[in-house]
Amino acid sequence: MASGSGWGRLPEGLLHSILDYMVPIDGRIKFSAVCSQWRRVAWEHCRELGSKHTHQLPLLMVPTPDNSKVRRSLYSVTRKTLCRSQLSVPYNKRCCGSSHGWLITVDDSFVVTLFNPFSGKIISFPPLRRLESEKRLLRQYAELDSLEYRKQVMEEFSSSEREEEDEEEEQEINQEDEGEINDAEEEETEGVPEYMKGADIVSESDYSIWKAVLSVDPDLKPSDYVLMVIYGVQKRLAFIQSVDKDWTYISKRSCYTQDIRRPAVSIADIKYSKGMFYALNERGGLLSCDVSGSLRVKMVTPNDMSFSLKRKLYLGESAGGDLLRVISLRDEKYRTIEFEVHGLGDGDSDGCDRAKWNQVESLGDAALFLGGNHSITIQASDYHGCQPNSIYFSDNHPEFLAVRVRDVLELYYLQWAPYNIGVFNLEDGKFAQHYVLDPSQRLMPPPIWILPTLM
Fold it and tell me: Within 10 A of 31 (CB to CB), how many other CB atoms are there?
């Protein structure tokens, strides 16, 4: 609706009064879409409240009912329904993260882009050039059978840290599950177009950014934010500041200078908390990365577990802002069967000066939202229908194929394990579903949590 219409001339005081009664974010999204005047008032209203989206309830971005490639629906877990508003999304770019209301995407040239689906704003970064050095090797992997490919990739990035007994355990697991995984792959790839078999197929790792997290919303601090990513076969760390012209890579050398025996590889998750990035590796160890000046990397907790495909690790925060380690445990078919939550405690009395993880029995009134997004914590009592002491998760295991057909790049997502979307209650240890994907959506990008913004 044009800003010159009668709606755009309504008194701002009246508009603020209307917004006071709009708790669901989709109502505010519709409000801000009326005209530029209403959008500005909506943004100012949120800023005055000091809660632009710090305490906003995340929405689950899911495929539209018609499986559009250029639009996504939003699902509200509290109202258990799809919002009427749909978002436009980039086509032929892989989404590798959601942070502060922005989607982080990467293309086949390793160019990283921030896209705000609520405002349409775009911020582009230089390509991750170190991924180029992996490309030749990864293309060789891509020619292998998909199961063997996964095994070799896992071997590549974990061989430097995996102990002999862990390797033997991993081989036993793979032998037991090989038939089930093959069956799952055969079932899930039904419906893939025939022309894919002869097309120029690019492996998943050609786009190998595993996760991306912003320090702050670029709309709030356009010249003072940092983007950190987990990239490459070895799952290393890189970051770029808003004013930088290239990426900074946290390498073996930078870690050795900080008395870290093992380099920062096999990173499972990253989190920005209290002015600093933290990285959790797949053996449970926590690193702090101070990027505010000269790069300083410090080992906060030692590794305390072996590598396992049956675990997925996340970094979260308590309601009070303390770091949490969340472990998703899986069964033989890679279905999530349990969550464990650990909080940071002091070192042992035997002289160890490093912190350690201690199990947390309750999250209190907090609810965590975990997945491909930066982890989000909210007070459940602020939102009717939100379950306290719970973990809302979208924990998926897709691989995707980038297929060139007549010079057009198409992305297909192949789900080799079940979609894990649900909510886990720490008090009773029970799972519940909140959104169920239609089988027709199995080739679509997996759902991801996103914080709504009104910029």
Answer: 18
